[in-house]
Structure formats: structure tokens, C-alpha cells
Amino acid sequence: MEGTTYTNGIIDTDILIDATKGHKDATSFLVRQQVLEIQISIISAIELVVGCRDKVELTQTQKFLQDCTVLPVTATGSQIAYQLVESLYLSHGLIMADALIAATALERNLTLYTRNIRHFRMIPQLKVSQPY
Q1: What's the average model confidence in pLDDT over 61-66?
Q2: Which residue has the higher pLDDT, 70 or 32?
Q3: Could you give the CA distance from residue 125 to residue 72 in angstroms, rounded to a whole number?
Q4: In angstroms, rounded to a whole number, what is the distance separating the alpha carbons of residues 97 and 114?
Q5: 3-state SS assignment for residue 52
Q6: Distance (Å, rounded) from C-alpha 116 to C-alpha 118?
Q7: Which of 78, 79, 90, 132 is the most exposed place for a label (fewest CB within 10 A)?
Q8: What mean pLDDT is reported for the chain?
Q9: Which residues are paired to 131 by β-bridges?
Q10: Does residue 14 contact residue 114 with C-beta atoms inside 8 Å?
Q11: Where do the DSSP E strands lie in the chain?
């Protein structure tokens, strides 16, 4: 969405994967976010590394991660994620990785940018935005 102004937030793994595949909208969004700061959860960093198929991709991922602020899961974030999974796993299928990413955003009062709104929309306190 050209011309849209975004606030600082956490970028979900799906957008990062799109950018690595050369998806124009994802790349454009990351360039605009870079003016603020590209922040990701440590969970997304782990997901990116686990998705590498060879040493070349791992090296590229490591280089990309150097330009990101990788936010850790804190003790408070762990508790928030636990409460989210406890209350939303059975009813909505909220998985651990998504709960930890959401908890990181909630704890820091940041918007979560994702293409997968349905993974997070059941969390009422979470600010979620689909940038493209």
C-alpha cells in the first residue's frame, strides 16, 4: 500500500519469507520499515534459520538478521504466551510460535505486521496490521 504510514512494530515471519523470495510488496514494506527499525521476535529469527536449505541460505539469513533488532522472549513474555495458548489453543488453534510472537508484541505494546491475520485475530489486545 504505497504511501501508507506505518508505526514501529514487530514483523512476522511470513513477511520476512516473502521478502527473501523477492515479493515486491514485502520488500517495499521492509524498506519503509527500515526507516523506523526492523524489529522481529527471536522466534521469527529461529524460523528463518530453520527454513534454510543450505549454507548459502544460512549465510544470507545471518546477514539479513544483522540489520534487524531481534527481540528476545522474556520471562513476562513467556507467561503471556502461556496464558494465550491456555485460553486459545483449543478454541482457535493458537500454536506456540505464534503465541510467543504475539506475546512479544503485547509486552512491548507494538503492532504486529503479518499477512496471516487469522493466526492472531482472536487476541483482542493485540494490534495487528496486514501491510499488503
Answers
A1: 93
A2: 70
A3: 20
A4: 14
A5: coil
A6: 5
A7: 90
A8: 93
A9: none
A10: yes
A11: 9-11, 39-41, 69-71, 111-113, 128-129
pLDDT at 132 over 70: yes
Determine the 3-state secondary structure of 67 from DSSP.
Answer: coil
Residue with cell 523470495: 21
Give the orientation angle of helix 55-66 with respect to helix 42-50, to 10 degrees: 160
Give pLDDT tens digits for 9-49.
Answer: 999 999 999 998 889 999 999 998 887 789 999 999 999 99
The pair phi, psi for residue 63, each rounded to 5°, is: -65, -45
Three cell numbers, residue 73? 522472549
Rounded to an integer, what distance in angstroms lies between the CA atom of residue 16 and that of residue 86?
28
Residue 17 near residue 50 (C-beta atoms within 8 A): no
What pTM was estimated for this model as a whole? 0.91
Grid coordinates representing 39 are: 524489529
Cβ–Cβ under 8 Å, residues 112 and 129: yes
